């Protein structure tokens, strides 16, 4: 590898490419594009077909922690290179969907949920966390912004493919895109530091692992109130935000907002998601983490409040943008807090578990809007107002849990000394210690 490609920011570049065609953009955010062509072609009800996505999310929630354990044990590269081929094949299998038996549709969505974990942020974030210390927040923010880029690009690509070739070949085209966009940069640039190979060869010596990579063991972390406080906060947060954004177009058009304006409001969230990732990462490297998180939790509260108000003009667009900034920061915040509070010893296991809970919230939020009103009976206003208000109140416990977690955990420095972490190294010292990708 030449000196040009030894810079470890190429790991971030590979992450952007991989997540551009990741599980979120391909499986979730193109779903609405395929929904009408598939249901009209096969004569299925939209409700029945949408339930398949909920099954997909439930399977993913179970599998994601397992992906984390595999990454910690074998390394992201060993898991992802064969996993990308399996994920592409699973994506192409959508082309086999038939109206009968309905169970077959659920099995295909379950399959993509089973193998889609390799294209979640978990393995990518684990590698970035290994390489970066001082600039970890920014590196995670830029890398995971690939999801936001995919949210903007992949639905448009899917729509073009459907118009040109039909929905079945469009799914095959997305599978080809996975191999063309993700596999080459992952194969060339994504690799763990040399120290990881030493730890992987001696997993039976926990004292060696603990000394080489300071942090908290997975079992101890999973028994802590801090881990579950953070997990519950992010779980409730994604239900509120995704539950709003998934249905924002029909909810706005029901109020008489033109469809073009409602669609533009949704499209703006993709760009806000990208900006939210990078901005939150930059802030995490400079300010106390819980303050940054609470700020990005408050933004969607404001956004949903704007939507509740029924204001016209640019108000719906501003509300959607505020929600997009919040959801954009979430994955970066989860990845950063997991590394800072619990260290890198069992990072992928813990992040995988937290992300699995997060994915379950995504699936719950993707249900039909009348099915997602856990506390809407408290309201007597119009349906859409009650729907937004129920999501808004998710933020009361989630923001409270996040605030309590941050306050009880104590100071979380820019490079973190929590959870038994040793004195932090600078990025240059970290690069020098790990050898390859030494120039930052």
Explain how this protein is built.
By secondary structure, the chain is an all-alpha fold. It has one domain (3-434): MFS general substrate transporter like domains (Growth Hormone, Chain: A, Up-down Bundle). The protein is built from 22 helices and no strands. The chain has helices spanning 9-20, 23-28, 31-42, 46-74, 76-92, 102-115, 121-131, 136-165, 167-181, 183-189, 194-201, 206-212, 218-222, 225-246, 248-254, 259-284, 289-309, 315-342, 347-365, 383-392, 395-409, 427-434. Helix 3 packs parallel to helix 8 and helix 7 crosses helix 18. It is globular, with a radius of gyration of 21 Å. The two termini are 15 Å apart. Residues 207-211, 368-386 and 407-440 have low confidence and may be disordered.
What is the fold's blueprint, element by element?
Blueprint: H1 9-20, H2 23-28, H3 31-42, H4 46-74, H5 76-92, H6 102-115, H7 121-131, H8 136-165, H9 167-181, H10 183-189, H11 194-201, H12 206-212, H13 218-222, H14 225-246, H15 248-254, H16 259-284, H17 289-309, H18 315-342, H19 347-365, H20 383-392, H21 395-409, H22 427-434
């Amino acid at each position: 590898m030449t000196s040009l490609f030894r810079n470890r920011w190429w790991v971030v570049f590979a992450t952007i490419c991989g997540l551009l065609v990741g599980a979120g953009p391909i499986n979730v955010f193109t779903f609405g594009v395929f929904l009408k062509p598939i249901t009209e072609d096969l004569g299925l009800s939209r409700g029945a077909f949408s339930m398949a996505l909920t099954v997909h999310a439930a399977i993913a929630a179970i599998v994601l922690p397992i992906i984390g354990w595999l990454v910690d044990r074998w390394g992201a590269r060993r898991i992802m290179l064969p996993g990308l081929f399996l994920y592409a094949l699973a994506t192409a299998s959508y082309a086999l969907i038939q109206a009968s038996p309905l169970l077959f549709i659920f099995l295909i969505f379950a399959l993509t949920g089973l193998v889609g974990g390799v294209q979640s942020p978990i393995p990518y974030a684990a590698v970035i966390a290994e390489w970066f210390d001082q600039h970890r927040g920014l590196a995670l923010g830029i890398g995971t912004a690939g999801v936001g880029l995919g949210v903007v690009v992949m639905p448009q690509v899917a729509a073009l493919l459907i118009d040109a070739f039909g929905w079945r070949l469009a799914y095959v085209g997305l599978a080809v895109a996975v191999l063309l966009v993700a596999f080459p940069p992952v194969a060339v640039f994504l690799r763990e530091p040399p120290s990881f190979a030493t730890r992987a060869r001696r997993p039976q010596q926990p004292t060696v692992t603990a000394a080489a990579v300071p942090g908290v063991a997975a079992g101890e972390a999973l028994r802590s109130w801090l881990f579950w406080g953070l997990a519950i906060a992010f779980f409730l947060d994604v239900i509120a935000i995704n539950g709003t954004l998934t249905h924002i177009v029909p909810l706005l058009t029901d109020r008489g907002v033109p469809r073009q304006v409602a669609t533009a409001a949704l499209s703006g969230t993709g760009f806000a998601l990208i900006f939210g990732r990078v901005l939150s990462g930059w802030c995490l490297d400079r300010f106390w983490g819980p303050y940054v998180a609470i700020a990005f939790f408050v933004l969607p509260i404001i956004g949903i409040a704007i939507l509740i108000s029924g204001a016209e003009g640019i108000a719906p667009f501003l509300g959607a943008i505020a929600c997009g900034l919040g959801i954009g920061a979430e994955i970066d915040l989860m990845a950063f807090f997991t590394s800072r509070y619990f260290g890198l010893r069992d990072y992928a296991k813990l992040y995988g578990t937290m992300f699995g809970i997060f994915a379950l919230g995504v699936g719950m939020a993707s249900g039909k809007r009348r099915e997602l009103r856990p506390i809407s009976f408290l309201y007597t206003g119009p349906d859409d107002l009650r729907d937004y208000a129920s999501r808004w109140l998710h933020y009361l416990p989630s923001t409270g849990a996040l605030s309590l977690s941050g306050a009880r955990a104590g100071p979380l420095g820019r490079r973190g000394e929590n959870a038994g972490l040793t004195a932090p190294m600078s990025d240059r010292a970290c690069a020098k210690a790990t050898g390859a990708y030494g120039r930052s």
